[in-house]
Amino acid sequence: MTFQSGRHFLQIPGPTNVPDRVLRALSRPTIDHRGPEFAKLSLGVLEGLKRIFQTSGPVVIYPSSGTGAWEAALVNTLSADDKVLMFETGHFATLWRNMAVALGLEVDFVPTDWRHGVDPNIVEQKLTEDKDHRIKSVMAVHNETSTGVTSNIPLVRKAIDRANHPALLMVDTISSLASIDYRHEEWGVDVTVGCSQKGLMLPPGLGLNAVSSKALDAAKSAKLPRSFWDWEAMLAANKIGFFPYTPATNLLYGLQEAIHMLEEEGLPNVFARHDRHAAATRRAVQAWGLEVLCADPQEYSSSLTAVMMPGGCDADALLDLILKKFDMCLGIGLGKVKGKIFRIGHLGNFNDLMLAGTLSGIEMGLSLAGIPFSKGGAAAALEYLEDTPG
Ligand SMILES: Cc1ncc(COP(=O)(O)O)c(C=O)c1O
User: Which helix (H) or strand (E) holds 91?
Assistant: First the structure.
């Protein structure tokens, strides 16, 4: 292993770079999670998260990864053999589907080409056909981290309403929360799934559920077995700032600091920053003569950009070279697109010069790997950033 000086570039689409302010908060001494100081901390972060999810309803925090928060959404609201409607937008939608099947749910999994998001017309058609209301939930991944495609959740909500169907709406915002505009309450979402290690700029370890009153009602009759994930015990303890089991105390310190940072910047500015860096990245890809995986400009992700390799070139070999030469990690292709794409994470604690470094590393890597492309992508992105002040 050769010695690498300077800072490592962590440009995968999560976990993201943890800001120094958050790292310092994480390093505070651990306190008694049944004491008054802890209650103050947790009541503060539970309120703060409501502002991040844009909801007045409860948010549940688990000491878990995002996968745990997926499971919590399902087991709290559904019963064995319930039917759910999902879309194969990519690798993460597929994993969530696999979990639903493993839990005994019947999944209508609508295929896509992994270049598009959820089609609201299909939602409306499927729900309209479902006269006896067997479909209990529509489940969508807002930002598909494996493809860089963002589905339009307000249109999915409208489609459910047009079909006049009572299904719940559950949305995975694991790689969009605090990066791409998302409004749990205004958009009529019943359960929003999130986690700590992406837009919230924390290390992995917190799984999140924002919950509507309709979802809380569904929980009263839902029969899937649950214990660790049970909202009821959690929400009862949370009322006075406590948890039914040991919470991830130090991550909550980090969360408090991350919420301060997001609110100092202002959520609309956070979203605009992500939009601008994503647009600059696409300029670079275009100038390289390469193609973005997302096929619909309306669905371009502002958290990450997935780039298609020119015919026959291996994306994983390129990423290995970039890691060795420039100490930068980019996201590999997952599932069906393994080796065919690479993913540039531009979410979380990120700025113009970090983007400049990221794109320069990719451009040098493409050149050293002998991949057919045109130089000038990094320069095109810088020009965009100059012309489009943040
Ligand atoms: C969209 C999406 N959903 C779910 C997950 C799973 O989350 P975790 O790996 O934290 O369990 C990920 C992970 O990257 C993701 O990007």
Answer: helix 91-102
Mutate which of 91, 174, 191, 251 for ligand 1? The one with the most ligand atoms within 8 Å of its CB, which is 174
Q: Which pLDDT tens digits describe the chain residue by residue (390 residues)?
A: 578 899 999 999 999 999 999 999 999 999 999 999 999 999 999 999 999 999 999 999 999 999 999 999 999 999 999 999 999 999 999 999 999 999 999 999 999 999 999 999 999 999 999 999 999 999 999 999 999 999 999 999 999 999 999 999 999 999 999 999 999 999 999 999 999 999 999 999 999 999 999 999 999 999 999 999 999 999 999 999 999 999 999 999 999 999 999 999 999 999 999 999 999 999 999 999 999 999 999 999 999 999 999 988 999 999 999 999 999 999 999 999 999 999 999 999 999 999 999 999 999 999 999 999 999 999 999 999 999 998
The per-residue b/e assignment along 339-360, b for 16 or more CB within 10 angstroms, e otherwise, is: ebbbbbbbbbbbebebbbbbbb
Count CB atoms within 10 A of the CB of residue 372: 11
Distance 85 CA to ligand 1 centre (A): 19
Q: How far is the CA of 61 from the centre of ligand 1 (A)?
A: 16
Rounded to whole angstroms, how far apart are CA atoms 218 and 364?
Answer: 53
Residue 150: DSSP 8-state: E
Contact indicator for 64, 246 with CB cutoff of 8 Å: no
Q: Please, are residues 210 and 216 in contact by the beta-carbon 8 Å criterion?
A: no
| CB distance 285 to 390 below 8 Å | no
Q: Which two tokens stand for residue 243?
A: 């948890």
Contact 109, 86 (CB under 8 A): yes
Q: Is the CB of residue 340 less than 8 Å from the CB of residue 22?
A: no
pTM of the model: 0.98
The residue among 303, 345, 298 whose CA lies nearest residue 154 is 298
* 137, 85 Cβ separation under 8 angstroms: yes
- Mutate which of 16, 67, 70 for ligand 1? The one with the most ligand atoms within 8 Å of its CB, which is 67
Structural element, H or E, at residue 86: strand 83-88
